[in-house]
Write a structure and sequence with these properties.
With 145 residues, the chain is mostly helical. It has 6 helices and no strands. It has one domain.
């Protein structure tokens, strides 16, 4: 299968996971699918691409130029994209699980999930700020009681 076809397939396959996090966050299978099943499948594809794909001449992780050389090979670029898909989904799943444990309304978490899906670290940062702000508010209210 071509890297372009795999790219399209992976992008389409990950969407139901995000929809579960948004619309069915408390369904017992949501966390199983988004925390374990999907990331494991994505990780397997990632490992397969790394092991079977062509190596980029001059590629490496010691400089920006070496990383750019890595991503000059379509299968390596696809592996990088899949890397993001797996970690962003895992973080989105954690945001939902953590917010449920802390009693944070899912409505507050939704913008964080959208930003995590689209911009990874920005969504995580927003969730961490939300978490910090709400925990401080709860702590202040408990102290006043």
């Amino acid at each position: 299968m071509s890297p372009e076809k795999l790219f399209s397939l992976c992008g389409t396959a990950i969407l139901p996971c995000w929809l579960l996090l948004v619309f069915l966050p408390r369904w017992r299978w949501t966390q199983r699918i988004t925390t374990f099943v999907a990331p494991l499948l994505i990780a397997a594809l990632y490992a397969w691409l790394l092991l079977t794909g062509p190596k980029a001449p001059g590629g490496g992780f010691n400089s920006l130029q070496q990383v750019a050389a890595l991503f000059s090979v379509p299968t390596a670029l696809l592996a990088g994209w899949i890397h993001y898909l797996a970690f962003d989904l895992f973080i989105g799943s954690w945001e939902v699980r953590d917010s449920q444990q802390l009693g944070i309304s899912h409505w507050f978490v939704l913008p964080c999930l959208v930003l995590t899906f689209l911009f990874g670290p920005v969504g995580l940062a927003l969730y961490l700020l939300l978490r910090l702000g709400l925990r401080r508010k709860v702590g202040a209210e408990e102290g006043a009681a």
